[in-house]
Amino acid sequence: MIGVGVVGYGYWGPNLVRNLADLPNADLRWVCDLQTERLARLRSRYPAVQITEDFANLLADPKVDAIAIATPVSTHFALAMRALRAGKSVFVEKPITATAEQAERLIEEADRRGLVVAVDHTFIHTGAVKKLRELINKDLGEVYYYDSVRVNLGLFQHDVSVMWDLAVHDLAIMDYVLGARPRAVSATGMSHVAGSPENMAYLNLHFDCKLMAHVHVNWLAPVKIRRTLIGGSNKMVVYDDLEPSEKIKVYDRGITLDPMAPKAGERKNQMRIGYRAGDMFAPQLDITEALGSELAEFASCVEKNTKPTADGEAGLRVVRILEAAGQSLAKGGAPVELARESVLA
Amino acid sequence: MIGVGVVGYGYWGPNLVRNLADLPNADLRWVCDLQTERLARLRSRYPAVQITEDFANLLADPKVDAIAIATPVSTHFALAMRALRAGKSVFVEKPITATAEQAERLIEEADRRGLVVAVDHTFIHTGAVKKLRELINKDLGEVYYYDSVRVNLGLFQHDVSVMWDLAVHDLAIMDYVLGARPRAVSATGMSHVAGSPENMAYLNLHFDCKLMAHVHVNWLAPVKIRRTLIGGSNKMVVYDDLEPSEKIKVYDRGITLDPMAPKAGERKNQMRIGYRAGDMFAPQLDITEALGSELAEFASCVEKNTKPTADGEAGLRVVRILEAAGQSLAKGGAPVELARESVLA
Amino acid sequence: MIGVGVVGYGYWGPNLVRNLADLPNADLRWVCDLQTERLARLRSRYPAVQITEDFANLLADPKVDAIAIATPVSTHFALAMRALRAGKSVFVEKPITATAEQAERLIEEADRRGLVVAVDHTFIHTGAVKKLRELINKDLGEVYYYDSVRVNLGLFQHDVSVMWDLAVHDLAIMDYVLGARPRAVSATGMSHVAGSPENMAYLNLHFDCKLMAHVHVNWLAPVKIRRTLIGGSNKMVVYDDLEPSEKIKVYDRGITLDPMAPKAGERKNQMRIGYRAGDMFAPQLDITEALGSELAEFASCVEKNTKPTADGEAGLRVVRILEAAGQSLAKGGAPVELARESVLA
Amino acid sequence: MIGVGVVGYGYWGPNLVRNLADLPNADLRWVCDLQTERLARLRSRYPAVQITEDFANLLADPKVDAIAIATPVSTHFALAMRALRAGKSVFVEKPITATAEQAERLIEEADRRGLVVAVDHTFIHTGAVKKLRELINKDLGEVYYYDSVRVNLGLFQHDVSVMWDLAVHDLAIMDYVLGARPRAVSATGMSHVAGSPENMAYLNLHFDCKLMAHVHVNWLAPVKIRRTLIGGSNKMVVYDDLEPSEKIKVYDRGITLDPMAPKAGERKNQMRIGYRAGDMFAPQLDITEALGSELAEFASCVEKNTKPTADGEAGLRVVRILEAAGQSLAKGGAPVELARESVLA
To answer: When comparing pLDDT for D8 and D262, which is higher?
Structure first.
């Protein structure tokens, strides 16, 4: 059993609170937010939880072992660092920080103190993404491409671009399911509202192998699409997160190569490239709520001092790509190499 | 009534022949192909049409006014130039030529001789694309983006990449429906089969305005997708060519801007960016076969010596983009400026 | 502001409680259930609400004006009658009672005492069904048919058949949107589990006009379908409740009649029956939670002593059809006439 | 190699002619139709085929072994009987005849003369329906229900109702895939155009076992639906004929029965009925054109004097159901028993 405080009770915070309140190995002690009307709503629902506008109260409570941070991205670093320095482990909303350097500092601080840093990459705890990782490891063969479209008509964020709001999901999923790590990233995007960050963007991840990864994110689409195509040398996958029950479809399809008889005047044998089309298969998926499993894992990691699936390093790798994508976008789409070593080292 | 010959009776040629045979203002006189087994099939279906393996027979027939060319891309220029020099107008499969320079030479030759050059951009003659142009001109407001996904598990072409095979359709459609012309193009792609041209690619078209255009083409996708999203300041469109009857859906959706009261410490008023979601509307579309209308227009242009909707210039603009996209791809995705003037001039 | 008690905190009760707790013109005073573990869950969520296993406590509280009943169907009548006799208005889960006679008695009792009887026909308070009623009244012309498929792989109910569980929704919707009242009903169905009520059924409603109404309900379907087709002389509608945003589609389609020239030997002119296919239109729908609106209306009716949209009579009409459908099913599908007058009268 | 004549070159005849022309073991010698403009179209496409308005020419040609009949239903019997009496085998459009008695007479005549009678139940020769039969035989367990929806906005037939036009497909498929034969049929339907046969209908087939079969056919639907749900004790199937590639989906879903501890006061153990939801599987289907396989089988049957898959008996069983359905419809939907023995016997 660990004692937990939550800071931030806006869009995502209520989900953290609801799941933490139901968690057998967590004792939700505090919720902190600056907006009193939000806290009033909380009070009537969870009368046993202490409410405060002062983050210092959470830090001062010796029964608080860990703090979950669901505030705007720009505040993640300062709050998480204060928590770590007070000896509390942290569970931070995605993206973990606003810069890679900040993420590195958090990791360093936590390591020095023997504390846990987790980043809330919720999707990797869904049954669909766990199945995706298993399929990629076992069935797909060489992965040729990963193509994700994540668009809808959505609320524009004031402080972050659509990449930091939506593409972060795809980057977190790819970090989890793909064996390979990208070498560079290029991005193009556009803001259609003066003074506002990009509301649409295309990201290309470049790898040392023949894998292509591409993400389309858009807050200005007429329809909601959440669809990823993954092509492998043996099988292919469509992952459609909006499908109610068949989110993952595995196609036994691919290309075939047959030698052709050389034509007159041709020196070497050519290969005839054909394709094969076989059965499709939609595996039954685990439908446990991802956030619940993720918080249970975090509580267990804090208790046993182990690493969570999405640790600070995972959060850092994703922020490095987002940071580089922003640089590429500013340079008109030129590829930007990704740092592989810490700037702090 | 014009006399017509067809050269190339492979994949697309039979469609040209079937439509020309039914056209009231065309007299289909010859079909030429190098493979005799194809011609045998033709002979039993169209006994009145003359069959030959020698293209010179078409050129020598004074009753032939125009020649339709449905051979591999690499042969378009030579065949079309011979036809023009023999005084015949030409209707050339897409893409019009293998290089922009070749297209310019055909246009020049035709202009000098007062002949018609048409390129077979079939899609722009469909009811769906004609409606798209009308919507963009009248209803959408400022066009923010054009995003097309055209993927399937398809036969690899030996001589051309997936861009020349599939993206050419999107470029032809954009050339027809968008008022703006792109300034530059960038492209990334990959071949997953040694010795074969790219089987997947992403193209970005760059404009002088805030319009973004993006095309994803792929021969290695598990499912067939033909979907274009178009966002405008007033309305948005989904064009799904695989929908049997509702190919075009118009959404009365978009963003709204409301001034917000300035927060303490902020100097200027911020705008709150919201969105509105209204009705959707799927207009009834003209379902006449596009190729029939297109060939009827071509025959009429030859008779009256007028320009077809997709003339040599349209074909040239598309080939210029494909050529620049190939250069960008070779340079790792760096944008390549598009020539606006003839290299011949 | 009215005082409210809820009896039954199983599947649907928590939704009533959540909505009543948020309702400005209701004071949720009591929740009653026989299972203590359910009440424990409730206590931590709503500490201000009084909890009891004894229904008499609700009846005895003079501040309770109305009681919402979300218990098994077989208990509706007894609980509602006790409530009415204690001077409380009632809001009863669908179907209102297990027999038409019971519903008639409740209506009679409430009328005598000037109390409100409402039945929870939730769907008729959704934006989709309200739009359906509007379309039928204004746009569709003469309604030719109403065809609903409501199937899924679902939990079998022990006490009621699939008709009383699922078809009740369609009957409630039809009661609200169609002007006409059925004259008779026929039904076929089957139980595939020994000792269990029917798990699939087909209902036909017979009208005095040319309207056909048909409902297919099934707990044993591999996929979930919630789709209604409505054909009118002017327009047609598809209502798909599983569509996330375009639940209602209006098609400008129908038949056309053109006189044909009489053929040799035919005496009278025949009509050529053709069809026209026009635009499709998906109106934006009100997305307010139906149950909230419904309970707000109920509270207001109790305060002002007015009739709710779904009053006891509406509940009675639906139960009469269900009862007759059960009789038809027992007779192998023969049509059973619907009573139009009270058996009590 | 058999000699073949075709009578009827309207809607379906051209498909017969195209397939017969391509068939290696058939020699298409004659096409007969009463409308000369149709024959003119034919002449230009198939110059080698003899054309006539006089059916007697086909009967008189000793090289004609078989006649394919694609005329209106009301003429099937007379033409087929003339053909049989002239010693020709027959391939008759569905439904085989306008009455069961006519079908019996054709079968009797053919048996007496050792000729082949085939009915064109095209669907049973598709890859999808062949797979359905295989699944029902091997995987589904006890079949609980067969539910088909076959609706669209369609051309009204003047001479036959929607049952004889559309439901005939479902009856032919069920005859082929289900082991059981129906005992009785009930039907309701409506004509919404004065003087026209029914444009919508619902059919229930009654069996001696717990199988339910239901068909909804409609010419007045706003959208096209071709979907069959089949529930079995082990697996369930969705067959959607409009799906381009995944027409058959097999769901590993069903109900489970667990004994429950008896409650106080209950004598016997109750069963808790739950459900299990497992993987879905879409087998790759044979995509050969059904009509081609069917005609090849017919030609082979004529050569070897064997029975085709859909012989006269299959045609008769389907017509018996259609005839009884018409009687049920006239009686307001009362079930009508199906004759199992010949009226001629």
So the answer is: D8
Residue B227 and residue B129 share a domain:
yes
Tell me the three state secondary structure of residue D225.
Answer: strand
Nearest alpha-carbon partner for C294 in C93, C142, C115, C112: C93
Contact check, Cβ <8 Å, C229/D223: yes
Query: Is residue C27 within 8 Å of residue C3, measured between CB atoms?
Result: yes
pTM of the model: 0.92
Q: How many domains does chain A have?
A: 2
Q: Are B186 and A188 in contact (CB < 8 Å)? A: yes
Inter-chain touch D283–A279, beta carbons under 8 Å: yes
Which chain B residues are within 8 Å of C240, Cβ to Cβ? none
For C156-174, write each residue's pLDDT tens digit: 777 789 999 999 999 999 9
In a domain, residue B321? The reply is: no
Whether B303 and B241 map to the same domain: the answer is: no
Separation of CA A218 from chain center: 17
Contact A244 C244 (CB under 8 A): no
B20–chain D nearest CA distance, Å: 14
Residue B245 belongs to domain spanning:
124-286+332-336
Residues of B at the D interface, defined by Cβ within 8 angstroms: 44-45, 47-48, 224, 242, 244
For testing contact with chain B, the best of A34, A147, A252, A269 (most B CBs within 10 A) = A147
Nearest to C210 among D155, D190, D275 (CB): D190
Q: Which of B246, B278, B284 is facing C284, going by the closest CB pair? A: B278
| D144 and D226 part of one domain | yes
**What pLDDT does B261 receive?**
58
CA distance D21 to chain C (A): 33
DSSP bridge pairs for C185: C205, C336
Residues B195-231 pLDDT 10s: 889 999 999 999 999 999 999 999 999 999 999 999 9
> pLDDT tens-digit profile of C75-91?
999 999 999 999 999 99
The DSSP output letter for A260 is P
Long-range contacts from D325-329, C-beta under 8 angstroms, 24+ separation: D325/D163, D325/D167, D325/D185, D325/D186, D325/D187, D325/D201, D325/D203, D326/D161, D326/D163, D326/D187, D328/D185, D328/D186, D328/D187, D328/D188, D329/D163, D329/D187, D329/D188, D329/D189, D329/D198, D329/D201
**pLDDT, tens digit only, all 345 positions of chain C:** 899 999 999 989 999 999 999 898 999 999 999 988 888 878 877 878 999 999 999 999 999 999 999 999 999 999 999 999 999 999 999 999 999 999 999 999 999 999 999 999 999 999 999 999 999 999 999 999 999 999 999 877 777 899 999 999 999 999 999 989 999 999 999 999 888 899 999 999 999 999 999 999 999 999 999 999 999 999 999 999 999 889 999 999 988 877 765 555 544 555 677 778 889 999 999 989 999 999 999 999 999 999 999 999 999 999 999 999 999 999 989 899 998 776 665
Same domain, B26 and B60: yes
